Amino acid sequence: MTEYQPTLEEIVAFVVSFLEIERSARYFSVATLTLVAYEYFITFEQEADYIYHWRGGWTAPSILFVFNRYFIIVLLIISNLMLLWPDPPDTFCLHAARFTGASGIIITTVVNISLTIRLYAFWHRSRSILIGVSILLVAGLIVSTVTSIISLVPVKPTPKFAPGLPTGCFLIPPMGTWIPLIPVLVFDTVMMVLTAVQARRLLQGTGASLQRQTPIVAHLFKTGTGYYVVIFGVTLFTSISSFASPHLEAVVPSSGILAAITSIMCSRLLLYIRSELQTAKTPRLSTATVGTPYDTTAERTGANFEMDNWQQDFRELEERGARRRSDDAIT
């Protein structure tokens, strides 16, 4: 029985298709880095005002923001280096591929921790919500890590057709790159549902419209909805493209687009919330309604930006018409 030998036409067709994938991956990766760089430059002034010069000082959300903001840049630089370096050694390509795979999980985890802190404060520091969401977060992290390791271990560099061809690190793509994205979809869906449920409860409890609620309640619901729609759309696109198209399976995950969009949206959430707190001038309301006595003086707000004394019952503050402590905890 003779071994099958591809014809010259089949070899040429394979090489041409391969080079098209390589070019698409390079364009996609450069575009992703450009998007993150553009986002960085247009929001740096807000970052300086609401992070480095924030009246509450450095808090856990601030630290997570900075890590999320700059780690994605490191990740995308390495991703682009993998594609733009003309003839990198195979050892670099393998280590870089594993680093970028792990980095995507790290960024997603940091973002999810930030969202968990905000949801915990939004739910009046409910321990059951914190425990439940934390269990879901850890379970999703385990599933994503295990499936990523299984898919990345067999990855190998593509044999060279000729010296320097193809250029850059072009690896034989792993199978099932869409599987680690399932926990991301599940976690984001649960976060959106819990945000919507709590917003509905607050509206029903006060009989007020969304516009008459505290700015943080209204803003968390609106930005949370926007975050979910964008992240769900990008994650769904990444999952379907990786599952249905061998061409896109080699292009989309390697570009880091999902990690980049997730990082951008999480950063925007914190900047928007702090911008809302900075500009809000809500007057004091009576205890019959749920109001937010915003006071921007450093004496009254500086100590309240840390998530200290989590055991204190938030409802006591709510009954006195003081939502500011919860709003500060979110930031």
TrEMBL record:
InterPro entries, A to Z: DUF6533
Entry keyword annotation includes Transmembrane: yes
Positions of transmembrane segments: 63-85, 97-117, 129-155, 175-197, 226-244, 250-271
UniProt domain DUF6533: residue ranges: 27-74
Transmembrane helix recorded as keyword: yes
Naturally occurring in which organism (per UniProt): Exidia glandulosa HHB12029
Signal peptide (UniProt feature, chain positions): none
Name of the protein in question: DUF6533 domain-containing protein
Key words, A-Z: Membrane, Transmembrane, Transmembrane helix
